């Protein structure tokens, strides 16, 4: 029977393939008394060996696809699996209490997990998560059930999951994964951003795909209209194959724009840049005709490891990006840790509201040694390209001034050590807190540029956690309050002769682009895969005509009214 499910279009395109359910199996344990201790210990040893072999494969795959930093988590899992402090007590339970291996493993693991979780130390609490992941894998082998392993997929599939975690994503075999769909998530969730960077279609936030889809079902992921079709009819299949072919033709047309500058139909140039997380992402920027990097998220250098990256490690990463961009602008955001991005080794206190807490520039101004190391590495790398530095999560002028002062101090130190760096480095800030948008006219006197981070600006303005499904309806990029704040920032920048960019997901949104062009946004930074469609759209829009709609747009009352206005009056 054919079923259609509606979700959120998170990554454009059409995928048609068999379903691969990335849903973890039931690992319920029954406690049993055993007679043959030796054979039970042998069962445990076999399960541990199989788990080690799997983890080695996953680690190698992650290393090759995503780099050493991302593979570090699996190296940690392998250490847990070979730790006599964990394995010894399991074998003792089997021997002394004549427990079956499953129950001995489960009881020992739960004891360690509880012990680590109760420690007042975030690093040790993270070890509890490692033990949980590793022992689940061993338990699955003992129970004879399979933990889905997408890295071992050897045919074209569509991943079906409740959500995709970073470690799930690390295992995806990009050659065969043609798309994915999840129960939860929105356009700014990790899985959605990952899909766009992999350039595969995705529909998220469907609520029920894991209930409705079985392994091997033929499914269609329509990442253009946000639909999943399960077991399509021949007629639907033909229609979607046609839609897939038309979209491929459109992409081929967009590809012709790769080496063109981005200009409106009336000859006004704007810059189309890309958001990246690692030096390897530069390849996608270049392949999609990016005119720069508008956001380099440096926190990925710090994640998936057990200690801070050294100055040399950071210098090498920044230098690589700058050199590969060959003089095109690269806007680097200083460390933005906190909220949903944690560093266990920093042992930061747990917070009731981490998105509103000790994060980003607030953390860096407190942990100055860490901040200065990053700034020093950035300054040293600056001579290899066109570097611009911006500070995240700025709420007050004092914060910006303090951050800039620390940067200038590090410049002086390098000068005194005769270490070269670029003469002219623009220093800007993210505008993602309403307070900074509201006094953008004051900030504009002191910054070299603004970059509007709409993912956070929207959630803070609407007081709605963008990761919370219950309030996801309030994630409204076209809401008049957001448009007014964005307009204030652009006008404040231009009044002082500065430029304004945007690096949130809104910058690549086809409904938002005509609005932002009319508001006078200078730089649009987005997922690399969105650049060519955006260039194609801007080419057909007159900036002068778009700007005539500004006052009308700012007077509308709802996001729905704005979207309808754009469709009826600006994109007709």
Short description:
The chain has 572 residues and is of the alpha/beta class. It has helices at residues 37-66, 68-81, 84-97, 101-117, 122-143, 166-170, 190-198, 209-212, 234-255, 282-287, 311-324, 361-366, 368-381, 397-416, 434-438, 440-443, 454-462, 480-495, 512-519, 531-539, 543-547, 550-554, 559-570, and strands at residues 3-6, 8-11, 14-21, 157-161, 177-182, 202-204, 218-222, 227-230, 271-276, 293-297, 329-333, 386-391, 426-431, 449-452, 499-502, 523-526.
What brief labels describe this structure?
Glucose Oxidase, domain 1, alpha/beta, Enzyme I, Chain A, domain 2, 572 residues, TIM Barrel, 47% helix
Low-pLDDT parts are none
- CATH topology call of the largest domain: TIM Barrel
> Please, what is the oligomeric state?
single chain
| Tally of contiguous helical segments | 23
The termini sit apart by: 38 Å
Give a written overview of the molecule.
The chain folds into 3 domains: 3-23 and 149-252, Glucose Oxidase, domain 1, CATH 3.50.30; 37-143, PtsI, HPr-binding domain (Enzyme I, Chain A, domain 2, Orthogonal Bundle), CATH 1.10.274; 267-570, TIM Barrel, CATH 3.20.20.60. 47% of the residues lie in helices and 14% in strands. The chain is built from 23 helices and 16 strands. Strands 1-8-7-3-4-5-6-2 form an 8-stranded mixed beta sheet. Strands 9-10-11-12-13-14-15-16 form an 8-stranded parallel β-barrel. The radius of gyration is 25 Å and the shape is globular. The chain starts with a strand and ends with a helix. The model has no long low-confidence stretch (mean pLDDT 90).
């Amino acid at each position: 029977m054919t079923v259609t499910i509606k979700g959120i279009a998170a990554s454009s395109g059409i995928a048609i393939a068999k379903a691969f359910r990335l849903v973890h199996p039931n690992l319920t344990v029954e406690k049993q008394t055993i007679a043959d201790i030796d054979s039970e210990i042998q069962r445990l040893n076999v399960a541990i060996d199989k788990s080690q072999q799997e983890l080695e494969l996953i680690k190698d795959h992650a290393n090759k696809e995503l780099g050493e930093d991302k593979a570090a988590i699996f190296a940690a899992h392998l250490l847990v699996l070979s730790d006599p402090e964990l394995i010894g007590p399991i074998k003792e339970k089997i021997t002394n209490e004549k427990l079956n291996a499953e129950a001995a493993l489960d009881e020992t693991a739960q004891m360690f997990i509880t012990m680590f979780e109760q420690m007042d130390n975030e690093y040790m609490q993270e070890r509890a998560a490692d033990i949980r992941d590793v022992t689940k894998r061993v338990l699955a082998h003992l129970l004879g059930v399979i933990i889905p392993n997408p890295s071992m997929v050897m045919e074209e599939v569509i991943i079906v999951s409740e959500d995709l975690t970073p470690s799930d994503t690390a295992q995806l075999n990009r050659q065969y994964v043609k798309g994915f769909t999840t129960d939860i998530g929105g356009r700014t969730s990790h899985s959605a951003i990952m899909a766009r960077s992999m350039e595969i279609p995705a529909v998220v936030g469907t609520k029920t795909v894991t209930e409705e889809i079985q392994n091997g079902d033929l499914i269609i992921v329509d990442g253009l209209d946000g639909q999943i079709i399960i077991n399509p009819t021949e007629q639907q299949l033909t229609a979607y194959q046609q839609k897939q072919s038309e979209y491929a033709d459109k992409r081929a047309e967009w590809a012709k724009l790769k080496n063109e500058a981005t200009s409106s139909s009336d000859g006004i140039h704007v810059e189309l840049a890309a958001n990246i997380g690692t030096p390897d992402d530069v390849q996608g920027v270049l392949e999609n005709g990016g005119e720069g990097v508008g956001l380099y998220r440096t926190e990925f250098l710090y994640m998936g490891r057990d200690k801070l990256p050294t100055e040399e490690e950071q210098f090498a990463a920044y230098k690589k990006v700058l050199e590969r961009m060959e003089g095109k602008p690269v806007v680097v955001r200083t460390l933005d840790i906190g909220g949903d991005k944690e560093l266990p080794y920093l042992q930061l206190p747990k917070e009731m509201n981490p998105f509103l807490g000790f994060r980003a520039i607030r953390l860096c101004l407190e942990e100055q040694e860490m901040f200065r190391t990053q700034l020093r590495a950035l300054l040293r790398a600056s001579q290899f390209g066109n570097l611009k530095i911006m500070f995240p999560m700025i709420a007050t002028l004092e914060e910006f001034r303090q951050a800039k002062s620390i940067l200038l101090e590090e410049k002086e130190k390098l000068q005194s050590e005769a270490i070269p760096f670029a003469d002219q480095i623009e220093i800007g800030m993210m505008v993602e807190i309403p307070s900074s948008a509201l006094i953008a006219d004051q900030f504009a006197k002191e910054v070299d540029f603004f970059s509007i981070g709409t993912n956070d600006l929207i959630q803070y303005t609407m007081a709605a956690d963008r990761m919370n499904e219950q309030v996801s309806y309030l994630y409204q990029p076209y809401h008049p309050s957001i448009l007014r704040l964005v307009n204030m920032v652009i006008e404040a920048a231009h009044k002082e002769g500065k430029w304004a960019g945007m690096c949130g997901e809104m910058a690549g949104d086809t409904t938002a682009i005509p609005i932002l062009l009319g508001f006078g946004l200078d730089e649009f930074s987005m997922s690399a895969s969105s650049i060519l469609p955006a260039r194609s759209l801007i080419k057909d829009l007159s900036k002068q005509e778009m700007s005539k709609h500004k006052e009308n747009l700012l007077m509308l009352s709802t996001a729905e009214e704005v979207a309808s206005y754009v469709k009826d009056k600006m994109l007709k």
